[in-house]
Amino acid sequence: MLRWIDVLKFAKYSNPEPPRRLELSEDQWQARLSFAQFRVMRQKATEPPYRNAYCRSYEPGVYACRGCGTLLFDSSTKYHAMSGWPSFTQPVARNLIRYAFDESHHMQRIEALCNICQAHLGHVFPDGPEPSGLRYCLNSESLERLPAAEPPLE
């Protein structure tokens, strides 16, 4: 189980090695993603709070990166954080998320990115529920919910 100290160490020293990598040009990303997805995932924009696909959605399933199809989060770790964005406590594996310090907008945060395709997912905070205490606050535009039995996208 990841804890805040693990996230800080990854951001400061070295992120875990991803199981694979997907590298595309910005033109290829623009062709692959919608305008809103491209703004969030490649330009690090943030979608509006509460008016996004997964903020109030709690159906069972898994959440995959819209950029590369990698399964990142399970619905069993999703919870109602009242933040306006979908929130999770743990990724499905520790090497699927990349962490980076983010000091944009006059704040100090830890950015969460897909470790496979480097897509901006959102941020992680140390104010989540126990036992991990983590809150992955993510953009719905970066995710796609799949039924639990469905295989990952490639």
From TrEMBL:
Q: Which species is listed as the source?
A: Hymenobacter sublimis
Q: Which PROSITE patterns match?
A: MSRB
- Which InterPro entries does the entry mention? Met_Sox_Rdtase_MsrB, Met_Sox_Rdtase_MsrB_dom, Mss4-like_sf
Write the Enzyme Commission number(s) for this entry.
1.8.4.12
The MsrB domain covers which part of the protein?
A: 26-148
Which ranges of the sequence are coiled-coil?
A: none
The molecular function GO annotations come to: peptide-methionine (R)-S-oxide reductase activity
The UniProt keyword set, sorted, is: Oxidoreductase
Do you know which PANTHER family this protein is assigned to? METHIONINE SULFOXIDE REDUCTASE, METHIONINE-R-SULFOXIDE REDUCTASE B1
Protein name as catalogued: peptide-methionine (R)-S-oxide reductase
Q: What class of enzyme is it?
A: oxidoreductase
Q: Which Pfam families does the record cross-reference, listed alphabetically?
A: SelR (PF01641)
Query: For this protein, what reaction is catalysed?
Result: L-methionyl-[protein] + [thioredoxin]-disulfide + H2O = L-methionyl-(R)-S-oxide-[protein] + [thioredoxin]-dithiol
Q: Which SUPFAM superfamilies match?
A: Mss4-like (SSF51316)
